[in-house]
Specification:
By secondary structure, this protein is of the alpha+beta class. The protein has helices at residues 8-13, 26-29, 95-110, 139-142, 169-182, 302-310, and strands spanning 31-32, 36-39, 44-47, 49-50, 53-60, 69-75, 82-88, 115-124, 127-138, 144-153, 156-165, 184-185, 232-240, 243-250, 258-261, 268-273, 280-286, 289-296, 321-325, 331-335. The protein has 2 domains: 8-190, Mog1/PsbP, alpha/beta/alpha sandwich (Protein Transport Mog1p, Chain A); 220-335, no CATH class. The protein contains 6 helices and 20 strands. Residues 1-23 form the signal peptide. Keywords: Signal.
Length: 340
């Protein structure tokens, strides 16, 4: 059964030691020169000192040794301003959607007094509209200002977080802008245009329950590019034990693909039309992998989607096939019924 993973915010910003991979594996994620930190697999680097902040530690959040889920923490000299650079390889790479989910995670984590005071595009290396830059004031009952940046480069996403005391807001913003300006990409052309996502309500949809069929799972090629550069509308909002989730549908007609972004760590549930046109393939995308589940005869109802997220849907089978992605682009397919 599917269960969502936790948000990146507590794991990255506060750098909880048990959640991070130890130094023995850091060499797989980063290489460090006299002046910069570099993710060799992604071809992305940042100076060790930038925007009044200095590198203090780096490593991997998950997938130890694979170099696909990497973090680096920066601090001001007195430690009051903390920043995180995060370079990761989600199987569903959508920069606008990642920024949207980061926005939700920040406002949910830091309380109702948190105000988003900036949410717009920013340039990278002189090219306009290559990053999303967001600023939040009044966080933690007014004690903190926090800011975020998001860049989509090829298969990789780059997330930046900078947080500090409200009275040092200018330094927080200088840190974020310095990090955005300091990013270097081996392939500048890989940095994709990006814009904040805004979703309107979809036209009214039939919300009848779906049935899990006996159809074989689709091939990976039929689900991997779901939603890329697509416009979405909000089909429904579902409430679960862990919170609410938006059910988004491609604006290509009533039978188009549906996705449910689960967290700011790159987890996305998807329901893709089968090539035969007789059902919808369920898949779960996350950092470094895509899991292919069963085929439903229609889009599951909001109630069913909530049960799937909570791990309570009696129909949802285990993943039949899982695709594992390496930093070099290789994909390994593993079937659930294959010998271990």
């Amino acid at each position: 059964m599917f269960k969502p993973v936790l948000s990146l915010l507590p794991a990255l910003f506060f750098a909880s030691a048990p959640a991070l991979v130890h130094a023995a594996q850091e060499r797989e994620a980063w290489s460090i020169s006299d002046t910069s930190l570099r993710s060799d697999a992604a071809g992305i680097s940042l100076p060790q000192t930038v925007g009044g902040l200095s590198l203090t530690k780096s490593g991997e959040v998950s997938n130890g040794g694979k170099g696909i889920d990497n973090y680096a923490q920066y601090l001001s000299e007195d430690g009051a301003i903390q920043a995180t650079l995060y370079v990761y390889l989600p199987s569903y790479a959508d920069g606008s959607l990642a920024a949207y989910m980061t926005d939700r995670a920040i406002t949910e984590r830091f309380g109702t007094k948190t105000r988003r005071t900036a949410y717009a595009t920013a340039p990278i290396a002189g090219n306009a509209n290559r990053a999303i830059r967001a600023v939040y004031d009044g966080a933690a009952d007014g004690a903190l200002t926090t800011a975020a940046g998001l860049v989509h480069a090829g298969r990789w996403l780059v997330k930046l977080r900078v947080t500090g005391p409200t009275e040092r807001r200018k330094e927080v913003l200088a840190g974020l802008d310095g990090m955005l300006n300091g990013l270097h990409f081996d392939k500048p052309q890989s940095v994709q245009p990006i814009a904040p996502a805004h979703f309107a309500a979809c036209p009214s949809q039939d919300a009848a329950d779906a049935t899990l069929t006996a159809q074989a799972s689709e091939t990976l090629a039929n689900v991997i590019d779901t939603g890329e550069k697509a416009a979405f509308c909000i089909r429904a909002r579902v409430q679960t034990a862990d919170g609410s989730y938006d059910v988004l549908q491609q604006q290509k007609g009533p039978n188009s693909a549906v996705i449910v972004p689960i967290d700011d760590a790159g987890t996305v549930m998807a329901f893709d039309p089968t090539t035969s046109g007789t059902g919808y393939q369920m898949s779960i995308h996350s950092v470094g992998q895509t899991e292919l589940f069963g085929v439903y005869d229609r889009i599951p109802s909001p109630r069913q989607i909530a049960e799937i997220i909570d791990g309570k849907d009696p129909q949802t089978a285990q993943a039949r096939t899982t695709a594992h992605y390496a930093a070099n682009g290789e994909v390994t397919m593993r079937r659930a019924d294959a010998a271990q």
